[in-house]
TrEMBL record:
Lineage of the species this protein comes from: Bacteria, Pseudomonadati, Bacteroidota, Cytophagia, Cytophagales
GO MF: endonuclease activity
PROSITE patterns referenced in this protein's UniProt entry, alphabetically: GIY_YIG
Official protein name in the record: Putative endonuclease
Entry's family note: Belongs to the UPF0213 family.
PANTHER family tied to this protein: BSL5627 PROTEIN, UPF0213 PROTEIN YHBQ
Keywords assigned by UniProt, alphabetized: Endonuclease, Hydrolase, Nuclease
Classification via InterPro entries: GIY-YIG_endonuc, GIY-YIG_endonuc_sf, UPF0213_domain
Source organism superkingdom: Bacteria
Residues annotated as domain GIY-YIG: 1-77
Pfam family, one: GIY-YIG
Keyword Cell wall biogenesis/degradation (UniProt): no
C-alpha cells in the first residue's frame, strides 16, 4: 500500500500541519478543508507545500513522527524549503 507524508501550510494561521495518508493527497486536502473537528478546521486556506511517497503507511507515519519530533518551525522550514 502506498502512502504519502505531507506538509500543509495556512497563510492565515501562519502554521504548518504535518501528516500522512493512504488516500490520494488531493482527497486528503479536501477533507482538511471541509467542515470537521481538528487542528485544520479553523482555517480554510491550507495548501500542500511538500510531499514524500512511501511504500507503506508505517514508513510514512515514521517520517511524520520524525519531523514532528523536531518541534522547531525553523528547522522544518530550513530542511524542506531552503536548499
Amino acid at each position: 500500500m502506498n502512502a504519502t507524508f505531507y506538509i500543509l501550510y495556512s497563510n492565515d494561521a501562519d502554521k504548518y500541519y504535518i501528516g500522512h495518508t493512504t488516500e490520494p493527497i488531493k482527497e486528503r486536502l479536501r477533507k482538511h478543508l471541509s467542515n470537521h473537528d481538528g487542528f485544520t478546521a479553523k482555517y480554510k486556506d491550507w495548501t500542500i507545500i511538500y510531499t514524500e511517497e512511501y511504500a507503506t503507511k508505517e514508513l510514512a507515519y515514521q517520517r511524520e513522527r520524525q519531523v514532528k519530533a523536531w518541534k522547531s518551525r525553523k528547522k522544518i522550514a530550513r530542511f524542506f524549503f531552503y536548499f
